Amino acid sequence: MADEENAASGSVRRSWWDPVKSTVGLELAALAACGVMGLVGWPFGWLPDTDVAVVVTFVFTVEPPAELYRAAGPPRRLAAVAALLALVTAWLLVTAVLNWAFPALVDPGVGALVSYLVAVPVGVAVLAWFLIGANPG
What we know:
mainly alpha
């Protein structure tokens, strides 16, 4: 019955895990786009840098958290701050672990890219949990 009411009103109630799954899927699509860019640029001597991959991934993955924030009610600033803190913490931790575990990486940006790919779903999960999971009603 609740699904029929949500369908009639146009709102879709989803779990806090759905934005995280869509963010991970969009990250994979962004990495595929970077791969295509690399294949196209390779014959011309250009390969995408890790900074390009981070920017492309950001552009691809900005929609799920923006949609969550836009649809949320007024007490959403605390959720945004918590999500940013979680994102930065995960980014720094994963970067530190990767730089410690693989000190001989040719490009130190690889650690930043991998940590970004891990940190964005963590930030989206925290934002979604605060905005959807903590407020089930």
